[in-house]
Amino acid sequence: MTRKIRLTDTVIDYLSIEEARRRPGLRLVLGAYTVPGPWREACKGIFHVKGIPYASVSTADPGRADGEFGMAGADSQLRDWTGQSSAPVAIWNDEKPCSTWIEQLQLAERLAPTPSLLPQGVDERALTFGLCHELAGRDGFGWTRRIGMIHDNLAGLADDHPSRAFWQHMAAKYGYTPDSGAAASARLAGIVRAFARRIEAQRDAGRRYLVGDRLSAVDIHWACFVGMISPMDEERCPMASSFRASYTNPYPEVQAALSPLLLEHRDFVYETHLELPVRF
């Protein structure tokens, strides 16, 4: 029987930002909530594969909730420390905070060169960066899926619905327009089709991974980002019940593009390389 999972049903021990700023070593600002944001999960996954220990950090100011997602200035300390308002952020000692996926990946490669998540060959390395960008970059899969979520919720919620303020907040953060929302499904489908072609070509060549013949950053990113249209079951991903519907694909065009091999690959990467169940 499906249980109701609250946004606050976390199991990780999170430091406050004030506590984290006093600590040396690696700290990951993740946010203390049971939402499998793909940037967050990919960042966790990269450092997990590398075997690099880190302290998890909340996002909200004292007396505020991480589940406010920065609304009404709830994240002023995060802004002061990192110069921006999103999670995840990776901070190593007193170095500049790494708030983008590529900075986080490069930090992990520097701290633990082995196992490398980037191919040695230039062509395959460039392909890995390009595919990761299609998932995690601006206007990529994750960004576009958020735009689609915003579009669908603003269209479907009454003006006085209590959740409307959150989606309006997200609309401002992601630069949403009705036109971008209407175009989201086609853009998502194009990206998914490209990954379907990629996994099929790799399987035909007798290879198990998306690039080359071993795990790379793009495998981790795909495993985490596909959860925005097909989340794992509650046993493997005990996410907030209130968010599961938003993380389920509503677009027939995207569903048609989603090869079963891509979901098999997600399962293989999690079962072989990442943490299960997902911990929040």
Descriptors:
Glutaredoxin; 3-stranded mixed beta sheet; 49% helix; transferase activity; globular; mainly alpha; Glutathione-S-Trfase_C_sf; 4% strand; 280 residues; 2 domains
Task: Report what the structure shows.
It contains 12 helices and 3 strands. The protein is mainly alpha-helical. The chain has 2 domains: 95 residues, 3-Layer(aba) Sandwich (Glutaredoxin); 152 residues. Strands 2-1-3 form a 3-stranded mixed sheet, with no helix packed on it. α2 links the parallel β1 and β2. α6 packs antiparallel against α7. The relative contact order is 0.15. The model has no long low-confidence stretch (mean pLDDT 96).
Topology:
Layout (H helix, E strand, L loop, with lengths): L16 H5 L4 E4 L8 H13 L4 E3 L18 H7 L6 E4 L8 H11 L10 H15 L4 H16 L7 H11 L3 H27 L12 H9 L15 H4 L7 H6 L2 H14 L7
Parallel strand pairs: 1-2
Antiparallel strand pairs: 1-3
